Amino acid sequence: MKKTSHSVLDIFFTLALFCVFSATALAVVVIGADVYRKTTKSMEDNFNGLTATSYITQKLHQNDTENAVSIGKIEDIPSLIISQSNADQSFCTYIYEYDGNLQEQLVIDNTKPSLSGGQSIVAINSLDIVAINDKAIQIDIVDTQKNKKTMLIAFRSSQKVGEKND
User: Fold this and answer.
1) In the beta sheet, which residues pair with residue 74?
2) Is the pTM of this model over 0.85?
3) Which of the chain's ends, N or C, has fewer CB atoms near its CB within 10 Å?
4) How far is residue 79's CA from residue 127's CA, in Å, rounded to a whole number?
5) Contact 55/122 with Cβ under 8 angstroms?
6) Which H helix or E strand runs over 51?
7) Residue 27 pLDDT more than 90?
8) Per-residue b or e along 32-42, where b marks 16 or more CB atoms closer than 10 Å to that residue's CB
9) Are 124 and 48 in contact (CB under 8 A)?
10) Percent of the chain residues topping a pLDDT of 90
11) CA distance 8 to 71
C-alpha cells in the first residue's frame, strides 16, 4: 500500500512540474511575439517617415537648377513642382499627398495633373510645403503614426522658389 501512494505523489508532482513548465514556455512565446510585433511596427513607421523625407530631399537636390522648383496646388492640395526639360520637351514632376500616400506624377509641361493620376511612393498622413524665402523651403511631413518631420532645404543654384498656379 505504501508503494502505490508514493507512486501517485510522484506522478502528481511530475504532472504539476510539466504544467508549470508548459505555462512558462507559453508565456515566453506570447511575450516574444508581442515584442516582435511592436518592433516590426516601429521599424515600418520609421521606414515610412525616413523614406518620405529622403525621397523629397533627393528629388530636390537632383533638380537644384535655376527656377526648377516651385510650389503649387493640384485641386487645392499643396504640391512641389519640379520642372525639367530635354531637347524635345518640358516636363513637370508633381509631389504631393493624396489619399494617405506621398504621390509623384510626371506630366508634360502645361498639362493639368489630376490627384488620382500619381504614383504612390510611401504612406504618410500629410504634407505641407512653405517657401521660407526665394532660396529655401520648409517641408513638414506627418507620418502614419502622427510623428512630424520638418525639413528645411536651401538651394545652392540661383533658384528662386515661387508659386505656380495650375
Assistant:
1) 77
2) no
3) N
4) 8
5) yes
6) helix 2-62
7) yes
8) eeeeeeeeeee
9) yes
10) 45
11) 82
